[in-house]
Design a protein that fits this description.
Layout (H helix, E strand, L loop, with lengths): L8 H18 L11 H17 L18 H11 L5 H4 L6 H11 L2 H12 L5 E4 L16 E5 L2 E12 L6 E7 L10 E7 L5 E5 L18 E12 L3 E2 L5 H37 L1 E2 L2 E2 L4 H31 L5 H26 L1 H4 L5 H8 L9 H13 L13 H12 L11
Parallel strand pairs: 1-4
Antiparallel strand pairs: 2-3, 3-7, 4-5, 5-8, 6-7, 9-10
Helix pairs in contact: 1-3, 3-7, 3-8, 5-6, 5-7, 7-8, 7-9, 8-9, 9-11, 9-12
């Protein structure tokens, strides 16, 4: 029997190096990030990426046959907690969204020619990508409702539709698009996945809305925008379909399972960083003749944050272990738990961190307010909280058995059964039953 919370000593050395590297080399970029062009950011990240590649840690989410180290979800979870401390950690290690998920999707469904054209350059960091599934006028949590249509005409696919919140569409070299190929097919066989290269006629980015994370929008040329995109008789060759026409839902799930664990652990890294700031503030600030750390109200907040973070981490590690051992399809409840619970804990810890820093925590002189705004997205992205809670509930309800009459724990029936069970061993007084 194995029930172990330790990390392999050799891999712990890798994690130690990553912590030092991320804190010393990547986190400092945060302070000037908003003032950088994409070219300047790429210049800063390039030597860091080369060092990561030299360590064999580049694109660690991929299996060995795809150029990654094939580490598995448990090790990846530990790594992503470290990378999540800074917005640029994933880019420095070659597993930033949406490129990482798109790479997994293309790797599973693409032909060798498609991999040569899009996958390998994407993994090398030479291309950037977008994932486009969500639509403005149908529920994003139910992709069976998507309306964007891809029709086969001659040697082309002709695409018409209206997409929304297409991350990085304005800077991507290609879009991975989910569109309906057969509206009469069963709901989960209606759609396919397509590669839409940059500059395809008929594809128009109509709007780059600001978000809570970037209220005024991301600077032009920088990744991070979530675009509104119109497809009006956009045409791509037949070989731009990934897999078969009805494989869209299957391929979408390939990019979501591990990706949700990685998102959760990266958010945990941000949460841990905010908690460290809380502890520093509590040990430094004086109020009413005592350090904040000596006030019970502060101690209560710290205790709640510590328990929340530890619970969050353990749920993530359980989900990663389950996926490694039993596969993504048998890990749905565990993944749903971390997706829902993680964002809840993160927002609570961040709110307490802002509170203990007072007016300073509310300003942009500290990263807390930006971290809070960014974390709010995780209650919606990759499936809304409500969807994940339904998944959890269904998982536990599926084996629940109905009873007629009194509940199975009805005490009078339990007493009667106990008397019959133990009557030959002891004398029981039943007059009060």
């Amino acid at each position: 029997m194995a029930w172990d919370f330790s990390t392999d000593p050799e891999f712990e050395k890798t994690l130690d190096w990553m912590r030092e590297f991320v804190v010393a080399e990547v986190e400092p970029i945060d302070a000037i990030s908003e003032d950088l062009t994409q070219e300047q950011l790429d210049t800063l990240l390039a030597p860091l990426q080369e060092e990561v590649k030299a360590r064999g840690l580049w694109a660690a989410h991929l299996d060995e046959e795809l150029g990654g180290p094939g580490m598995g979800q448990t090790k990846l979870a530990l790594m992503h907690e470290i990378l999540g401390r800074t917005a640029h950690g994933p880019s420095a290690f070659g597993n930033q969204a949406p490129d990482s998920g798109n790479a997994e999707l293309i790797a599973v469904g693409a032909t060798e020619d498609q991999k040569d054209r899009w996958l390998w350059p994407l993994l090398d960091g030479k291309l950037r990508s977008c994932f486009s599934m969500t639509e403005a006028h149908v529920a994003g949590s139910d992709p069976t409702l998507i309306q964007t249509r891809a029709e086969k005409k001659g040697d082309e696919w002709v695409i018409n539709g209206h997409k929304w919140f297409a991350s990085n569409a304005d800077v991507a070299d290609f879009i991975v698009l989910m569109a309906v190929t057969d509206p009469e097919a069963p709901p989960h066989r209606r759609a396919g996945m397509f590669i839409i290269p940059k500059g395809t006629p008929g594809v128009t980015i109509t709007h780059n809305p600001g978000t809570m994370s970037h209220p005024t929008g991301v600077r032009p040329g920088r990744g991070g925008n979530h675009c509104e995109v119109m497809y009006e008789d956009a045409r791509v060759p037949l070989d731009h379909l990934i897999g078969q026409p009805g494989d869209g839902f299957l391929l979408a799930q390939k990019r979501l399972g591990g990706g949700r664990i990685h998102h959760a652990m990266r958010l945990l890294g941000q949460t841990q960083r905010a908690f460290e700031m809380t502890l520093e503030r509590a040990a430094s600030r004086t109020s009413h003749g005592r350090l904040l750390r000596d006030h019970q109200m502060i101690q209560d907040d710290i205790a709640k944050s510590a328990v929340g973070i530890e619970t969050y981490r353990l749920l993530c590690m359980k989900a990663a272990w389950t996926m490694d051992n039993f596969g993504a399809s048998n890990s749905r409840a565990e993944i749903a738990m971390i997706k829902y619970y993680g964002a809840k804990v993160a927002l609570e810890v961040l709110d307490r961190a802002i509170q203990i820093h007072g007016s300073l925590g509310y300003t942009t002189d500290l990263p807390l307010e930006a971290m809070y705004r960014g974390a709010r997205a995780l209650r919606i992205a990759d499936g809304a909280d409500e969807v994940h809670k339904v998944t959890i509930a269904k998982h536990y309800l599926k084996n629940a058995e109905a009873v007629e009459g009194w509940p199975s724990e009805w005490r009078p029936a339990k007493k009667e059964a106990a008397i019959r069970k133990f009557a030959d061993l002891i004398e029981l007084h039943t007059e009060n039953l």
